[in-house]
Amino acid sequence: MTQQKFFVQRITRLLSSLSKSTLTFKIGFFILLSLVTLAVLEPYINNYLLRGRSSTEIGLFPKLLPPSLEHPLGTDHFGRDIFSLQLTGLRYSLIIGLLAGGIATLIAVVIATASGYLGGKVDGALNAMTNSVLVIPTLPILLAIAAYIRMDLLMMSFTLSIFSWPWPTRVIRAQILSLKERPYIDLAKVSGLNSVEIMFFEILPNLMPFIGVGFANAVIGAMIAETGLRLIGLGPGDIPSLGLLLFWSMGFGAIAQGYYQLVFAPAILLILIFISLNLVNIGLEDMFNPRLKRITGL
Question: CB under 8 Å, gap of 24 or more: what pairs does 42-51 form?
Answer without folding.
Answer: 42/87, 42/88, 42/90, 42/91, 45/84, 45/87, 46/84, 46/87, 46/88, 49/81, 49/83, 49/84, 50/81, 50/84
